[in-house]
C-alpha cells in the first residue's frame, strides 16, 4: 500500500500512542485551523481546512481497509472507535513516508530515511 502524506502522518501518530486512540484526535495536529473562529462559513481558508479534515477521515478508512490500523474498541455512543496500528502498520512506517513493502538493497537507498 502506498501511503500519502496524511495517511503516513496519521499512521505514525496512531502507532506512537501507547494505548488505543481515536484517530480523529490527531486531525487538528496534522491540519490545524488557520482561520479565526469568527470566519465566515464560505471563507476559503475554512473551506480548504474542512476539505483537509474530510481527507483525514478518508485516510483513516484507507488505513483500516489496508490492514494498517485496527479498531480495538468500537464506538459506543460516548466515544469514537479506538484504534491501534497493526504489525503491518508498524512495518509500513519503517519503509519511508510513501512506501510500504519489503525493504532490501533493491528497495531502500542510503539517502532514504528510516522511520520509527
Task: Please supply descriptive tags for the structure shown above.
116 residues, mainly alpha, two-stranded antiparallel ribbon, 4 helices, 8% strand
Question: Could you provide a short overview of the structure?
Answer:
This protein has 116 residues and is mostly helical. It is built from 4 helices and 2 strands. Strands 1-2 form a two-stranded antiparallel ribbon.
Which helices and strands occur, and which strands form pairs?
Elements lengths: L4 H12 L10 H4 L13 H22 L3 E5 L8 E4 L1 H7 L23
Antiparallel strand pairs: 1-2
Please describe what this structure looks like.
This protein has helices spanning 5-16, 27-30, 44-65, 87-93, and strands at 69-73, 82-85. The protein is mostly helical. A hairpin with an 8-residue loop joins strand 1 (69-73) and strand 2 (82-85). Helix 1 (5-16) crosses helix 3 (44-65). The longest helix is centred in the middle third of the chain and has 22 residues, at 44-65. The chain is globular. The model is unreliable at 97-116 (pLDDT under 50).
Largest sheet: 2 strands, antiparallel
Q: Give the helix level as a range of percent.
A: 25-40%
Give the amount of beta strand, in percent: 5-15%
From the N-terminal CA to the C-terminal CA, the straight-line distance is 18 Å
User: What Rg, in angstroms, do the CA atoms define?
Assistant: 16 Å
Mean pLDDT reading: 84
Low-confidence stretches: 97-116
**CA-based shape:** globular
Could you state the order of secondary-structure elements as H and E?
HHHEEH
Largest sheet, order of strands side by side?
Answer: 1-2
Work out the helix count.
Answer: 4
